[in-house]
Specification:
By secondary structure, this protein is mostly beta strands. It has two domains: 93 residues, Beta Barrel (Thrombin, subunit H); 79 residues, no CATH class. The protein is 0% helix and 61% strand. The strands form three sheets. Strands 10-1-13-14-15-12-11 form a seven-stranded antiparallel β-sheet, with no helix packed on it. It has a four-stranded mixed β-sheet with strand order 4-3-2-5, with no helix packed on it. The protein is elongated and about 85 Å long. The two termini are 44 Å apart.
Length: 201
């Protein structure tokens, strides 16, 4: 009886990082609000309708800073009104009275964009299959860089390699391409996993 291998040739373990897509907000910092009582700077998140503190050094020369006075400056967004009570922003319905100033709130969220992010998904034993190939590639015109490509196989059923995942082998970073699975029966069924790895920088 031929059993599925539990380990390979004693290489250091390969590290797998799975890709996921994160949504990020982009702010133009055109208008920020400064609360007079504590000298904090605020941006308004239009989607969540909340106020976020920003650092003063992030302000741009073109940024318009509007001063907010506690309880008497009211910001309006659509049919919602906000005021600063000295420690937090709260919704209010009291928008009239002596000394109250009503401002139209400017929301600075100008775009959402997707960003590739990675998380550590585990380590696995592997075998290099065939030869390690070296060539050059040109990702950007005039920028010629070396490229190393190798094929690996492993037997770990809990490791699922997918296109664009990252693998670290011997302190070098590789992207995953062409993952495939071969099924064997000798006599019990087991799977062998293959993938091509291309070096990144």
């Amino acid at each position: 009886m031929l059993l599925k291998p539990k380990s390979t040739v004693g290489n250091d373990m390969a590290l797998l990082y799975k890709r996921f897509i994160g949504l990020e907000n982009s702010n133009n910092l055109r208008v920020v609000y400064k609360t007079h009582s504590d000298n904090l700077y605020w941006l308004i998140n239009a989607d969540l309708q909340i106020f976020n503190i920003i650092d003063a050094e992030n302000l741009l020369p073109t940024t318009i800073v509007k001063t907010i006075y506690d309880n008497i400056t009211i910001l309006q967004f659509q049919s919602i009104y906000f005021k600063y009570n000295g420690s937090d922003w709260v919704k209010t319905t009291n928008i009239t009275g002596e000394g109250i100033t009503l401002l139209s709130a400017t929301f600075n969220n100008i775009a959402k964009y997707q960003m590739n992010k990675y998380y550590f998904a585990g380590s696995f034993d592997y075998v290099i299959k065939g030869s390690i190939e070296g060539t050059t590639t040109q990702y950007i015109k005039g920028n010629i860089m070396p490229l190393t490509a190798l094929n690996i196989k492993h037997y770990n059923d809990s490791i699922k390699l997918a296109e664009d995942d990252l693998v670290v082998i011997d302190k070098h970073l590789y992207s995953v391409e062409n993952p495939s699975i071969t099924q064997k029966r000798l006599p019990r069924a087991f799977r062998i996993y293959f993938a091509t790895l291309n070096s990144i920088l």
